[in-house]
Amino acid sequence: MTDLDSHLRKFQKELSAGTVSLALLAVLGAAAEPMYGYQIAKRLEQEGEGVLSGKQSALYPVLRNLEGGGLLDSFVEPSVAGPPRRYYRITDTGRDALREWSAAWRATRDSVDAVLQGAYAPHLPGEAK
């Protein structure tokens, strides 16, 4: 692995830390019914294009953290095909957080996009950037 690969992996890890929480709230905010972890992970795979980067195990600590913060509720139900399942649903506080976090995400994304837009423009030596 090159230094560049290492830097990219570190950047991706740091970037995903907050975005996974936002994506989880968005999935549960759009869900008509409570969902269990595997359903949430599959929805993120379908719609999130790699937001979990194939690490479903990372999902559960984030779900517990969001629940601990009052943004999600959960309950356990028996399963016909295996162990009991914990289902999650977004709370009213979670919906408020989703609105605020979404606005913060858009503002950050737009700011970064504006800065990046000029990063690839060719410049001649001595020319102002």
3D architecture notes:
- By secondary structure, the chain is α+β, with helices and mostly antiparallel strands.
- 59% of the residues lie in helices and 15% in strands.
- It has a three-stranded antiparallel beta sheet with strand order 1-3-2.
- A hairpin with a 2-residue loop joins strand 2 and strand 3.
- Helix 1 packs across helix 2 and helix 1 packs antiparallel against helix 4.
- The radius of gyration is 19 Å and the shape is globular.
**What overall geometry do the principal axes of the alpha carbons give?**
globular
User: How many extended strands?
Assistant: 3
Order of helices and strands: HEHHEEH
Radius of gyration: 19 Å
Number of helices: 4
Give the neighbour order of strands across the main sheet.
1-3-2
Low-pLDDT segments, ≥5 res? none
Biggest pleated-sheet summary: 3 strands, antiparallel
Class based on secondary structure composition and strand pairing: alpha+beta
Overall mean confidence score, pLDDT: 86
Distance between the termini: 33 Å
Instruction: Estimate the helix proportion, in percent.
Output: 55-70%
The proportion of strand residues reads 5-15%
